[in-house]
Amino acid sequence: MADDSRKRLRRATILFWILLLYIIAALVWWFVSLEKQSADLYDLQKVELTNSTFDKSSTQSKTALAAIEDQKRRNSANQSGHIFNMCSIASLQAYANGGAYSISKFALLGFTKNLRQELMQHNIKVTAIVPGAVYTDSWKSAGVSEDRLMEADDIASIIYTASRLSPQATIEEIIIRPQLGDL
Questions:
Q1: Is the pTM for the entire model greater than 0.85?
Q2: Exposed/middle/buried for 10, CB within 10 Å: 0-12, 13-18, 19+?
Q3: Which residues contact 85 (CB under 8 A, 6 or more apart)?
Q4: Which residue range(s) make up the domain with 56?
């Protein structure tokens, strides 16, 4: 009888430790998954903030790529095209609190350089416009004098001038800044 009791006690002890190990493993898994869920939620929030910045560029890029493919299909030896991508000084120099914007503009400049290489054989010119601060609606409430910023017509004029070059010439990048420097 004593042996039976000892066997039962030993089995109960083993079961107790196995159950305790399962509970500990479940708690560890739960804490790890909770921590991972928190990290995933944090990453998701960061992605959502970043995506809101990239959505516009992504939509524009998809539209531009479709137009480029169409232009390549229609081009013959005596036809040409010209793509102007509106980059930013932020394409060249990052600035504090401008991470998502700078990333998207660095990417757009790189994309523009890549397009230039891929499309030159199709008689399609590609130019990056890299402006500093231009007076637009986004600057109206910033408290910066209009005289301190470039005019939108300045950008339009330089694009028009670049578009009028002979077929043998192209401007790859146009960097244009306010006379008094960047803001």
A1: no
A2: exposed
A3: 64, 108, 109, 111, 112, 115, 126, 127, 128, 129
A4: 1-74
pLDDT score, position 86: 92
User: What domain count does the chain have?
Assistant: 2
- Considering the domain architecture, whether residues 85 and 23 belong to the same structural domain is answered as no
Q: Which of 40-44, 58-62, 107-111 has the lowest mean pLDDT?
A: 40-44
Confidence of residue 40 (pLDDT cuts 50, 70, 90): very low
**80 and 17 in a common domain:** no
